């Protein structure tokens, strides 16, 4: 199976935040943003694997700035590293007020997605072949996060 570059899975999405995404004070729910993050990660990992995928784990998801009704949310997702059947996807989210142009980085998230075969079982995915120094850095960091995940699971099992 031929490896793929991160840019082959690169996915961009944009959506205007509506009243139904927000609370009565006009702030968008974290869950509305999480749903879009999950969708973007799903598309990026399907592009990489060319298979159906499921979300196995949301490894980290932080909100750096609030999002309001009327803001345009722009999401970018790409596969940073792939193992046997699992892939790490990085999703970055920016909010922009389309009238003032005011723009903030609001979220970075890392998700582990698993490719499934036609029987719904985990199946092999192509490796990741980075093209740029930035992509190589992301790949190294993905390995560090995976090691930390595995170690945490072991530590919790031993308790
Ligand atoms: C994710 C899932 C397919 C894994 O199935 P499984 O039978 O446990 O598979 P395995 O133990 O063989 O693991 C398969 C891969 O998933 C990874 N994986 C499994 N559970 C994981 C978790 N909680 N976090 C991160 N990776 C996980 C394994 O590390 C392995 O990766 P690798 O093949 O690259 O080494 C299964 O647990 C599942 O279907 N979960 C529900 C997914 C779901 O419904 N998501 C929400 C809607 S999309």
Describe the structure.
The protein has 159 residues and is α+β, with helices and mostly antiparallel strands. It has a single domain (6-158), classed as Thiol Ester Dehydrase, Chain A, CATH 3.10.129. It has 3 helices and 5 strands, in the order αβαββββα. A 5-stranded antiparallel beta sheet has the order 1-3-4-5-2. The structure holds coenzyme A (COA). The site of coenzyme A (COA) has 11 residues, from strand 2 and strand 5.
Notable characteristics:
binds coenzyme A; 159 residues; 3 helices; 31% helix; Thiol Ester Dehydrase, Chain A; alpha+beta; single chain
**Uncertain runs with pLDDT below 50, 5 residues or more?**
none
Q: CATH first level: which class?
A: Alpha Beta
Tell me the Rg in angstroms: 17 Å
What is the distance, rounded to the nearest whole angstrom, between the alpha carbons of the first and last residues?
A: 40 Å
Small molecules (ligands, ions, cofactors) in the structure:
coenzyme A
Helix coverage percent: 25-40%
Overall structural class, as computed from helix and strand content, comes to: alpha+beta
Strand order of the largest sheet: 1-3-4-5-2
Major sheet, described briefly? 5 strands, antiparallel
Count up the domains: 1
Order of helices and strands: HEHEEEEH
- Assign the CATH topology: Thiol Ester Dehydrase, Chain A
Beta-strand proportion: 25-35%
Shape: globular
What's the number of extended β-strand segments?
A: 5
Count of individual helical segments: 3
Determine the CATH superfamily: Hotdog Thioesterase
User: How would you state the average pLDDT, rounded?
Assistant: 96
